[in-house]
Design goal:
The chain has about 350 residues and is an alpha+beta fold. Helix content is about 25%, strand content about 25%. A hairpin with a 2-residue loop joins strand 5 and strand 6. Helix 2 packs across helix 4. It is globular. The relative contact order is 0.16. Keywords: Hydrolase, Magnesium, Manganese, Metal-binding, Protein phosphatase. Its cofactor is Mn(2+); Mg(2+). Pfam families: PP2C.
């Protein structure tokens, strides 16, 4: 599955953007197994009978997920979730072991955290108003609010258990001269955000993985001691127009080394600029005009090759050996990539 942006409710589509910068985006996904359907009340399938008191005739063709009367933003990929907007991107990795537990639903947790996180960012005037120069975004607080709202939404009488990592990047701007884009990156666990400067061929920033122990990252949810206020790390990153920001689940970073991710993205941009990778919606320079979709797709392909190779050398295998475990090959997992190109808004 792949696309440029994840769906938004009708009212959000008509909100006027305030920031002078925005993301051109693309995402690509690979699930190691099909996602479990969301349980009621988050998904209410349409009924075939108008006499059925549980039918949902008012949205009889709508199979999207809902919470608190709102469409749940983002897309589920196995147990992962991604959310792709013009100033907020994220990739959460739900812990798949919950699939074997009664009332376990990691995908629901990963998706709801992202949904509420994005809503909190939208509601904060420091993000939505250029006039709010005396304040700045607080993504950790947004994540804490999202965490608390997810607990409430998955509690009695509709109890669903799960845990998820959390990683997102919020594109803002410097309110003082000379101005410029400013990225707020927040991470808890082992999903990853990378910032690349293609014109220099280098990575200028990456998040640091957080672990309790090998293969057990920090995570938000049922029975976990971790909370955003106590454990999330937020960094402010000075970026430039045409920098590329990646939000990825560990299905990428467990199978590709950092230099391989960089080389793959740079090669994809070169191919895109030369006319490969599909139709463009504008200038192809630097991966613009739709190139981020191609970048995301190529990166998922590369990670999947290693993930499905039982004899490949991989970062996950290397870490396992360091822990004294006899392992070989890639790690088959959900692979989620969001690629975003920072651009200045015209006009």
């Amino acid at each position: 599955m792949a696309g440029t942006t994840t769906p938004l409710p009708e009212e959000a589509l008509h909100q006027k953007a305030k920031s002078p910068f925005f993301f051109e985006t693309g995402y690509a996904l690979f699930a190691k197994r099909p996602s479990r359907p969301f349980p009621p009340p988050f998904l209410s399938p349409p009924s075939g009978s108008f006499s059925d008191p549980l039918s949902t005739h008012h949205r009889s063709r709508d199979r999207r997920q809902w919470v608190n009367g709102e469409m749940i933003r983002g897309i589920t990929n196995g147990d992962d979730a991604v959310l792709v907007g013009e100033n907020f991107i994220g990739a959460n990795d739900g812990v798949g072991a919950w699939a074997t537990r009664p009332k376990g639903h990691a995908a629901l947790w990963s998706r709801l955290i992202l949904h509420f996180w994005a809503l909190e960012a939208e509601r904060d005037a420091s993000v939505t108003s250029i006039a709010a120069e005396s304040s700045e975004p607080n993504p950790v607080r947004y994540l804490q609010e999202a965490y608390e709202q997810t607990i409430k939404a998955t509690s009695s009488p509709n109890e669903w258990n799960g845990t998820t990592t959390a990683c997102a990047a919020l594109l803002h701007y410097k309110t003082k001269e000379p101005g410029g884009p400013l990225l707020y990156v927040t991470n808890l666990g082992d999903s990853q955000c990378l910032v690349m400067r293609p014109k220099k061929g280098e990575i200028i920033y990456k998040t640091t993985e957080q672990w309790h122990w090998f293969d057990c990252p920090r995570q938000l949810g049922t029975n976990s001691p971790d909370t955003p206020n106590e454990n999330a790390v937020m960094d402010k990153v000075d970026i430039e127009e045409d920098d590329v920001v990646l939000a990825m689940s560990d299905g990428v970073v467990d199978n590709l080394w950092e230099h391989e991710v960089l080389e793959n993205v740079l090669e994809s941009i070169r191919k895109w600029e030369s006319g490969e990778g599909g139709e463009t919606s504008g200038d192809r320079t630097g991966g613009g005009g739709g190139g981020m979709l191609f970048v995301a797709e190529e990166l998922v392909k590369a990670a999947r090759v290693i993930a499905e190779d039982p004899y490949a050398e991989s970062p996950f295998m290397e870490r396992a050996i360091e822990e004294g475990l006899a392992m070989e090959g890639g790690k088959l997992d959900d692979i989620s990539v969001v690629a975003a190109l920072c651009k200045r808004r015209k006009g």
